[in-house]
Design goal:
With 283 residues, the chain is an alpha+beta fold. It is built from ten helices and four strands; from the N terminus they run αααβαααββαβααα. Helix 3 packs antiparallel against helix 8.
Length: 283
């Protein structure tokens, strides 16, 4: 066939049957994923097991301890504070958060307890949160040791209270809650790690199967020839290895069928001979 005619026919086929091809390909792809479901499930189990082992044995557990302070900004009668004063106090809590996480407070805590870490390292383990429409600020510290987390949280709270009063015009910084002693680690979440790892295993295995399917452009049957090339097949060449195996299997079955009646006849003759010998012995 002329190659130009072949390319023209192929382009025409792709244009006219584009929607049908997409639908058939999606069906084939879905069927392929169902056929390879055992691989996807196995990948999810293996990846989930890896996530469980990593989160349970390799990642160091982290404990959280939280303390909170209440900041009073009114120097007069607390009952006479207006709405604008309360709104201003809530806006100032952002300033207090920055002061708590500032270098002055955290470096004093590092020096006080002789912590073997830098300011940036401690800052990454401290989080400050303000509850909406309140003047209560929570200070949370993460540490591999639950007792250290409690001690550092209380220390940051005490140093920050003094620093806030020195820098801003506040009347008092009171302790709302003492730091708690955590009993269970907050990180890592073993179920979460296991689930994420299993999902990654599913996505990767399904992606590899889909990529192999999309990159495989070989013709596997006469239907593929008619579907993709719009050519009719005149004949099929059999796989001689397969044909030979089928012939051998058929021959062996035929031989078994021939030998079975002969074996039954031989057994019957042997039984008759034995009965004759018994009768002669009795006479």
């Amino acid at each position: 066939m002329n190659p130009f005619m072949y390319n023209e026919r192929k382009n025409t086929m792709q244009t006219s049957y584009q929607e049908d091809e997409i639908e058939i390909d999606l069906q084939d792809l879905f069927g392929l994923l169902l056929h390879k479901a055992w691989i996807i499930i196995l990948a999810a189990i293996v990846a989930g097991a890896i996530g469980f082992v990593v989160s349970f044995f390799l990642i160091t557990p982290q404990y959280e301890s939280t303390t909170s302070i209440y900041i009073s900004t009114s120097k007069g009668n607390e009952n006479s504070m207006t709405y604008s004063d309360a709104q201003l106090a809530s806006q100032l809590t952002k300033d207090y958060e920055e002061l708590i996480l500032g270098r002055t407070v955290l470096e004093k805590v590092i020096a006080q307890y002789q912590l073997n870490e830098s300011y940036e390292s401690l800052k990454n383990r401290v989080s400050v949160e303000n509850t909406s429409n309140t003047r209560i600020i929570s200070i949370t510290v993460k540490d591999p040791n639950p007792e250290n987390a409690q001690i550092i949280a209380n220390s940051i709270r005490d140093v920050a209270a003094v620093h806030i009063k020195d820098v801003t015009d506040v009347e008092a910084v009171n302790v709302a809650d003492e730091a708690n002693l955590p009993e269970k680690p907050c990180e890592p979440s073993i179920p979460k790690w296991t689930l994420i790892a299993a999902m990654i295993g599913i996505i990767l295995s399904a992606g590899i199967i889909i990529m192999q399917y999309l990159l495989d452009d070989t013709i596997k049957s006469s239907e593929d020839i008619e579907k993709y090339l719009e050519l009719s097949t005149l004949g099929l060449i059999p796989n001689f290895d397969t044909v030979e195996k089928k012939k051998k299997s058929r021959r062996s079955k035929e031989e078994e069928e021939i030998h079975e009646p002969q074996m039954e006849a031989d057994e019957a003759i042997e039984v008759v001979d034995i009965e004759k010998e018994q009768e002669d012995a009795e006479h």
